[in-house]
Amino acid sequence: MSGRPILLEARGLQASRGMRPVLSTIDLALHASEAVALVGPNAAGKSTLVRALAGLLRATAGEVRLLDRPLGTWSRDALARAVALVASEDEGAPAMTVRDRVALGRYPHRGPLRPFTDADHAAVERAIRLCGIGTLAGRTLGTLSAGERQLAALARGLAQEPRVLLLDEPAAHLDIGHELQLFRVLDEVRTQDVTVLAVIHDLARAARWAERMVLIAAGRIAADGPPDAVLQSPAAAEAFGVHVRGHAVAGLSHPLYSFEEGLQ
């Protein structure tokens, strides 16, 4: 990404879950205002990589650097002001209201004792409005659908006002209407100088949204580049065990994809 500074970078990153090695020598740089889709088969290491980039999982070798400083040199609050992670299982307590859930995103900016400022309130309302959940703000999380809870979790991450937004399966549980809303929000976020990396299982959707695709397989980066090139690469065919073909359609700026089971 010529001309764009690197915000978050993994260098020779290795990581394990329990005693099981998962990531093997990952080199990955995320640049300012990028939209990156992280794809790969089940158990490839996608969630592990996202958690390591967020500083929630310690590397067994190599390092992650934020603004060219090792993550270990950042305080927890300073790291949370710069990097937000939204995971599909991050739903919150059922009795908590949506507004209170979103307000948790302000914790890194104010600490446990300082009262909410006008800036804190404004950030919360901005995130709620951007995610289109204003009518849900007074409801408790336990009364929401899974998709609505996912949008509330996204709003919490946006209330952190991060430089880098990491999303682990953000479209999980979403119907088509909420999915379109989600990616509209992510497009808007990028215009505010936020880098977005999202784990996405729907390969066609990932290709339409992202400007860059990173394919991870067996704990290694197998391909990294423009989505069309990555999806139609031998690495993708091997990783997913399918043929991926793009079909140009008049009037569309992106190809339509077909997936055929089995390799020949």
Brief digest:
With 264 residues, the protein is α/β, with parallel strands linked by helices.
- Tell me the fraction of residues in β-strands, as a range: 25-35%
**Helix fraction?**
25-40%
SSE order = EEEHEEHEHHHHEHEHEEHHEE
- Computed over alpha carbons, the radius of gyration is 19 Å
- Span from first to last CA? 35 Å
Largest sheet features: 6 strands, mixed
User: DSSP helix count?
Assistant: 10
CATH fold label: Rossmann fold
| Mean pLDDT over all positions | 91
Output the CATH homologous superfamily. P-loop containing nucleotide triphosphate hydrolases
CATH architecture: 3-Layer(aba) Sandwich
Oligomer: single chain
Strand order within the widest beta sheet: 6-7-8-3-9-10
What coarse outline follows from CA principal-axis ratios?
globular
Number of strands: 12
Note poorly predicted spans. Answer: none
The structural domain count equals 1
CATH class label: Alpha Beta
